[in-house]
Amino acid sequence: EIVLTQSPGTLSLSPGERATLSCRASQSVNSNYLAWYQQKPGQAPRLLIYAASSRATGIPDRFSGSGSGTDFTLTISRLEAEDSAVYYCQQYGNSPRTFGQGTKVEIK
Amino acid sequence: EVQLVQSGAEVKKPGESLKISCKGSGYNFNSYWIGWVRQMPGKGLEWMGIIYPGDSDTRYSPSFQGQVTISADKSISTAYLQWSSLKASDTAMYYCAKLTREGSTWDPFEYWGQGTLVTVS
Predict the structure, then answer these.
(1) Closest residue in B to A103 (Cα–Cα)
(2) B113: closest CA among B53, B24, B28, B42?
(3) Positions in chain A short of pLDDT 50
(4) Which residues of B touch A92 (CB under 8 A)?
(5) Are β-strands B3-6 and B18-25 bridged in parallel, bridged antiparallel, or unpaired?
(6) Cβ separation of A45 and B107 shorter than 8 Å?
């Protein structure tokens, strides 16, 4: 089973700043099938990024994904108040599919 | 518009059985894998398993194999998650979610239900 380790645990930034979230896999993710989700309190998760770097439908271009193999990054440029949430990575290129433990982004 | 509508919150006692549901609409239910994700209180997301409603082919995470049963009734576009004997540790929010591409299992979850809170106490 691939273990995904996300860092940092919590990120506290001001509006307009850039957020960089990391997701490291215990082994290479096949086909770079790595997704990022956003979850706000009391809501279901929302797909942001798939295949490491492709934005899902309707996702603002301030969200971008990068990386390959075992190291992946979600970048949120120009943070807005509404970006306050927990962000999860998920690999879906290997069985079983697994999620990271999440990074909480707080807006000051 | 794609929608996944889940059944309502449940409160059960340890040892009881339970079946929760997820009704899909706005797409060809038979042709897309649909799955379940667990979120225990204050914790992260856990991938439980997926089912292809067209032929009921099912894939489970080893962590959940034998602990739950995933099924689907394509005639009413509904997927199910079932327990035969609940434990207190099954207390969680359960989400159903649809994979992205028709017929593909190697996909993320694109559309999500609103979640069903299961409390076992």
Answers:
(1) B44
(2) B24
(3) none
(4) 106-108
(5) antiparallel
(6) no
Pick from A46, A56, A99: which is nearest to B44 by CB? A99
Copy the structure tokens of residue B75: 């005639």
What SS3 class is residue B29?
Answer: helix
Structure tokens at B89: 């540790």
pLDDT bin (cut points 50, 70, 90) of residue B26 is: very high
* Cβ–Cβ contact A9 with B under 8 A: no
pLDDT at A79: 97
Q: For B41-80, what is each residue's pLDDT tens digit? A: 999 999 999 999 999 999 999 999 999 999 999 999 999 9
pLDDT value for B103: 92
**How long is chain A?**
108
Q: In this structure, what token pair is assigned to residue B107?
A: 């996909």
Q: Are strands B10-12 and B116-120 parallel, antiparallel or unpaired?
A: parallel
**Which of these, B93, B78, B94, lies nearest to B36 by C-alpha position?**
B94
Chain A partners within 8 Å of B107 (Cβ): 50, 92
Q: Which residue carries 């079932």 as its tokens?
A: B82
